[in-house]
Amino acid sequence: PVLVESLLVFIIVLSVHAAVWDRFSWCTVALAVQAFYVQFKWDRLLQLGGAVFQFRGAANSGLLPASMVIPLLGVVMKERCRAAGIVYFERFGVVVASTGMLLALFLSILAVGITKPVPTNTCILTGIAGSVIIYTMKHSLTVSEVIEVLEVLLIFVYLSMILLYLLPRCFTPGEALLVLGGVSFVLNQLIKRSLNVIEGRGDPIDFFLLVAVVGVVLLGLFFTVLFIFLDSGTWISSMFFHMMTAVLGLGVIMPWLYRLIQRNPLFWLLQFLFQTQTRLYLLVYWTFLAASACGVVFYQNAKRSSESKKHQASTITRKYFHFIVVATYVPGLIYDRQLLYIAAVLCLAVFIFLEYVRYFRIKPFGQTLRHLLSLFLDERDSGPLILTHIYLLLGMSLPVWLFPRSCAPKGTLPGAGALVPYSGVLAVGVGDTIASVFGSTMGEIKWPGTKKTFEGTMTAIFAQIIAVALILIFDSSVNLNSSYAWILASVSLVSLLEAYTTQIDNLLLPLYLQIMLMA
User: Fold this and answer.
1) By three-state DSSP, how is residue 277 classified?
2) Rounded Cα gap, residues 26 and 305, in angstroms
3) DSSP letter assigned to residue 234
4) Where is the chain membrane-spanning (predicted)?
5) What are 460-489's pLDDT values in tens digits?
6) pTM of the shown model
7) Are 105 and 124 in contact (CB under 8 A)?
8) What is the pLDDT of residues 334-377, one digit of tens each?
9) Cα-Cα-Cα-Cα dihedral sign, residues 186, 189, 195, 201
């Protein structure tokens, strides 16, 4: 399975660079080759228990698929913005690609460094790849961009040491690279934009995303350190938790946002949410869907109490939430993407806050959340945090958040790029859901070395093609310009990757589909 997964990633890398070939292509190919070799060193370290931190079990390291995501995103973003003539965001794409390569290279060097005996051939490959990347960066980046890349690397190193120690068994090395690398980049962007706020670059909704991500991470770190010295399950600690959350929110996050958007964040948010009648209808509709999701949770828990033999929700039951999320995102993508952007940011902040309440057993809802959510655990929730629902939200939202709006003057990209915001809906909401439901109920022919079935994968590809046809009918802004072969190839490769990867597919698949569609 690891070899097939690696082969699929190599095909995606070569497909992207067949469409977008520049000096960074050599770097990405060199990085992919060395990541393929180092991945086996990480796998061996995980099997022998020789890794520095405790990583998630029942999965390989995932270094190769994770190492390619950020560099490829930067490359395709750079190319799209260059074609649109937006120099600022073209340079931003260069920084994203360089940062992703350096973070992946650091993780590779770490694995090689702690492997005993030292693997000579892998060291040589890593050295060659590192030399190619550094040489290209030297001739592509300005001094300020080099400093920015090194800042992200420094934040990533410290954040990894802290969070991987505090959260054992929550990530594989590849997932840690994606999640912590993304958080490090967001934190660096927020610091940079806070210091250069006079320039007035950026949209207020972008600042909401940056501040929300950094705010919830800092909130978690603060309470983790605090509850080392206090029992988090008492009423006094719970009152202190709620009080400090309010203080940090109103005393730090709100003034920070005010500095960035130059207006009262709460007033701006209320004005934004209720600006048009369409937004009111969407908010009412989303409230109904949120209530429906809560209803599913309560109903399944009531069913568990009456059926003592049933301890975990079935795969099909968990996919109910995928259907609800698709029903949530599709109207937002068609009618108001900016509202969907902000709503997804607020929802992410609420999800992470509720996870803090559950993890720290904050009264009055902490223990109740633990009981309710334990029904929906699967083998990927082996650490102290329950992250699968947060990954589902991220997988659906990242294509919306990462869509280069400034490089798409008409609000959409030409050709297959018009489907980029729908990447999460197609890969996770439709593809992964249909593959899981049909594979578990009617699948008989298993892919070699996996539990996934041939029938599930083929059904997922067919369902995504139908979904693309429906998007063409209902979303008038989408114009594919006869790029149907590329869309079919993209959907097929990502669906095959879903069958063979052991990483969090909710996070990985939408990003790869977005990369393919943007290329």
Assistant:
1) helix
2) 57
3) S
4) 7-37, 57-76, 88-112, 118-137, 149-167, 207-230, 239-258, 278-299, 320-335, 341-361, 382-402, 422-442, 454-474, 486-513
5) 999 999 999 999 999 888 888 778 899 999
6) 0.92
7) no
8) 999 999 999 999 999 999 999 999 888 888 888 888 888 877 77
9) negative
